Amino acid sequence: MPSLGEGGWGRVLGRFLGDEWLPVWPPEGGFETVVDLRETEKGYELSAEVPGLKPEEIEVVLSGDLLTIKGEKREEREEDKGGYHLVERRFGSFHRSFRLPEAVEREHLSATHKDGVLRVVLPKLGKEESTRIEVKPS
Asked: How far apart are CA 78 and CA 73, in angstroms?
């Protein structure tokens, strides 16, 4: 596959998706996780496949308009049986970040983990109403 240079794929995706939905790509190494991010009337919903990870191995952070999910798996198994010695180690991490196009209601964020799927719900802020401010003489 031809390379588009640094940021090239981001520019291509930005033309189709709009810059606000562009993911911030993970660093080299680790593993990719499949993520589905969708907008609803009430907010944003993210679901990510995180097989084999426990809730305590997953971190979800919202900083400004940047939503970041990351996790790390460390598994080690040792077995002595029938004249052989087996040692297996599996290590891996992922890191995905997304810019949200609108502000969200931080008091009602939620993240759940079930059957290897992380689900994050980010409700949108309600529409701001206009407030008239009386001008008084000083």
From this structure: 17
Token pair for 89? 């180690």
Domain topology for 24-123: Immunoglobulin-like (2.60.40)
Residue 81: strand pairing partners: 84
The encoded tokens of residue 132 equal 């008239």
DSSP state of 124: B
- Contact assessment for residue 66 and residue 4, using Cβ atoms and an 8 Å cutoff: no
- Tell me the DSSP string of 23-91: EEPPPSSS----EEEEE-SSEEEEEEE-TT--GGGEEEEEETTEEEEEEEEEEEEEEEETTEEEEEEEE
**Eight-class DSSP state of 114:** E
Domain limits of the chain?
24-123
Amino acid at 135: V
CA distances from 60 to 15, 57, 116 (A): 28, 10, 15
Residue range 88-128, pLDDT digits in tens? 877 788 889 999 888 888 989 999 999 999 999 999 987 76
